[in-house]
Amino acid sequence: MRGFARSFAICLLLTATSSAARPLPTIAKQVSLDLVLAPGRETASDGTPVPYEIGTILVPENRSKPDSRRIGVGVLRVKAREPTNAPPIFLLVGGPGVTLLDTIGDKSAAARRRLRYWLDYSAGADLVIVEQRGFTIGGDMLKIRYPAMPLDRPTTVADNVAVVKALAKTSGAGNPGHDLAGYTLAECADDVDAVRRALGYSRISLLGASFGSQWSFAVMKRHPGTVARALISAVEPLDNGYDMPSQVLAAMERIALEAEQDPALQPHIPAGGLMAAVRAIRDRLAAGPVVVTLPDDAGAKPVSVTMGLGDFQQSLVEHAATASAWPAFVIDLYHARYERWAREIVASRKALETDLIGPLIDTATGVSAARERQLRADPALDIIGPWNFATYLASADAWPTGDLGDDFRRPAKDETPVLFVQGDWDTNTPIENLLGVLPYYPNAHAIVVHRGQHAGAPQLLRDRPDLWRAAMEFLNTGTMAGLPARAELAPVRFDLPEPTRGQAGG
Prior knowledge:
The structure is a single chain. The protein is an alpha/beta fold. Helix content is 36%, strand content 17%. The chain has 18 helices and 15 strands. It has helices at 6-15, 109-121, 157-174, 185-199, 211-222, 245-259, 274-287, 309-320, 326-334, 339-348, 357-365, 369-376, 381-384, 390-395, 406-409, 431-437, 457-460, 465-477, and strands spanning 29-30, 35-43, 49-60, 70-78, 89-92, 127-130, 143-146, 204-209, 227-233, 290-294, 303-307, 352-355, 418-423, 444-450, 486-488. It has an eleven-stranded mixed β-sheet, sandwiched between helices. α16 (431-437) links the parallel β13 and β14. α4 packs across α5 and α7 packs across α9 (326-334). The radius of gyration is 23 Å and the shape is globular.
């Protein structure tokens, strides 16, 4: 299912890392009363030096309380290599529960490639990254621990609701000294505006994908007139935090249509096609669970796991996020080759420590009553199930964050120029999200990327460097000239299913 007075400020800013992955630099400059930045330098994947400033801004933990304590939120700025009059680009990462500042000090190839992107973003405008409160290297990393789930019965929504309600009720005691009611999307949007003001920018541009897109919508709604333009991909409007099952299923059907034409995969496609196979698996597991016994690799006692319809519904959606592997997953389960799936389920039922801000932010954002009615009546529930929304809707009142309300969630007309980039194979934020919000942005342009999955604009446009350059030109100048309505990624090379080796369980 898918966080301090002037003479005291610098000391607190540089020590607000109680749960940070690595300490921030100690040589710092006070940019404003609440913001301190320190210089640093890294090397990108191509050997180019990347100078930056990194630090922490102090913001109220709960702005609805005048006496709220201050918390730290991490901030990074890469100044433009060739300064122009372009507004700074504020990069809002997805999640919630993701940081980009862990790149600093990381010598891995992936981190160095990310630094390369930072150089691209900051070619003609300052790049600013604001972390998510409660999941920030510049402050606290709030965590929550989910208990292990039993292996001897299938996963059910009722079990998940019971576990999550119990966690919600104890989340405050598990994080003493924190006002958890302040960890909402609205507060995250206000943090962005606090950084904008502290750095002296009159207007900014936004670059966000997935939760970062929802965060961008929140900034534009709460601080109208401060956003010059936005590049939004993997579109998640404020009222669309929980996906509509039929829209997720439609994305799967588009993947299936192309997979069935793949010459290498065609011999393995079950009679009737992949979606018929999905239905057959669904009906089989609705009739009763399967039990798979896995040999222990170390020679210890074998492990048995019971899997049912709910496990399949969750796994079906999770696997569809990787289009190249999803058809093989369906084909293997259709032929009752369960072992690989069983290992995944065993791993998923282990105790897990994860971020706390995910449920805090998502349950406070919630959905409108109208969308909830649609979710609960959706015709694809029998296949996809209610896993995307049922647990959080049932437990929302138990979490410390209050509902942000329909006035916050409801889309409204916004004249901000927006470039939308959306994949039509995206099963995490379906393309219907874009189609529903597009009429509210009269100055918007949309690029639908065929075969595009759940990724940010650079990845969605990776096969078309000319389009990525045009997208960056839009952020820097506002021009949309030459942008198409459609782009296409290279055909996907689909994985093949496991060799037929008989039934592994059942």
